[in-house]
Design goal:
The longest helix has about 30 residues. The chain has a single domain, classed as 23S rRNA-intervening sequence (de novo design (two linked rop proteins)), CATH 1.20.1440. Helix 1 runs antiparallel to helix 2. The relative contact order is 0.16. It is elongated and about 50 Å long. By secondary structure, the protein is an all-alpha fold.
Length: about 120
Amino acid sequence: MVGPEKIQERTFKFACRVVKLHQYLSKMDESAKILSKQLLRSGTSIGANLEEAEAGQSRADFVSKCVIALKEARETHYWLRLLGETNLVAVEKITPITQEAKEIVAILTTIVKNSRNNAAEI
């Protein structure tokens, strides 16, 4: 499993990529602009929620914030796939960031499952 600092740094870098993609898409047609706003909101909130989780007041608070981050990561993956499938961005250009979103979802799923299992053992 990836440690908390590692995933926080990874999601920060991911958010930076999302911001750059949003800037690119915001110069396109109306549908691209609308989707880019959705992507920007969800893609930048993943890391923000992990930062909040790190300062959680309890294990339950930590898990709750991680679950929110996971939901945002899943949503971000959805928007990225939609951008590619609708040809608003060439699939080959968006594949690396879409793959990163998928990996972040997998990592956060593991963090949430392990945190819930550890809480049940206490």
